[in-house]
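Methods — Computational structure assignment.
A single polypeptide chain was analysed. Its primary sequence is given first, followed by the predicted tertiary structure written as structure tokens.
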Amino acid sequence: MKRQYSLLAMLLLAACEQENEVYRQTHEDVFYQVPTDLVDILWVVDNSLSMADEQAEVADKFSDFISSVEDTDLDFHIGVITTDMDSSDLGRGRLLGDPIYLTQDTPNYAELFAERVQVGTKGSDREKGIDAAYTALSEPMISGSNAGFLRDGATLSIIYVSDENDCTDRGALDVYTEAQACYEHSDELVPVRELLADYSELKSNGERILVSSIVGPEITQNCDGAVPGFRYETMAEGFGGIIGNICQDNFASIMERLGLQVSGELTSFQLTYSATEGTIEVWVNDDSVPEDELNGWTYDTEYAIVYFHGDEIPVRDSTIAISYEIVPGSQNNTEE
């Protein structure tokens, strides 16, 4: 009887192991840090009442941003719009300045950027930065007043700068007059998942879209009235971009990171499938990289993105391999 029980247990154990083999699928994603030749960079800047200091800080630290771009002799377009979708003067997705975008051949482009990124503080208090960027990069704008900025074959980088949350409503809040309508009726805003889908359609030939943000963090105490920019952060997370804290006194670090990213040293990579935590292994050019939030990598379970940090950010021309066990039932993240 004991032998029969032991045999049954062995059979059950074998069956479990076989079942585990079925579900414990492994996968390896391989990415190439391909140097970018063309990049179109759109700065979306909040022009509401409280933003003067932040605009000045972006202008002052532009050299930290552009240095990596200049080092790679990148062919860039840089444009600036505001978060205002109400005013026709400095809003509604219209690129500001003359010329409407800056290139490496524009005389004194650093000075011109510093001037135009300081967009003033008389804009709408219903900041709609997500929709403003989409409008700027869609018809009829890209064939009209913004013609020439967006190029086929170029990486697209969108960078939000705001101390408020996004209020993209596409008319849903027009019936309300109160100043806090964006927050009191936030359930009527366009869902971020729809906005993510809209952005995905901006490039049709497989070019990369990067979305980053310098916005209010989750905790905004002692931050001159800033509120968490959750919707902007979600857009950045969805496209594997960089998230900076608008409450910090010095933007040098975040501007440098943004510059590295647009010049081809990407810091984030979305996995094909969701990975089981504890099973991820990362190599750069066959060198193992540790899991470390300072000098290594971290994993975002919600968006299946591996982020690199500090000295371990892969340099241009490097190869990144990431192996992991697939979360059972995980869908392919690269399929539309």
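Note: Confidence is low (pLDDT under 50) at residues 1-22.
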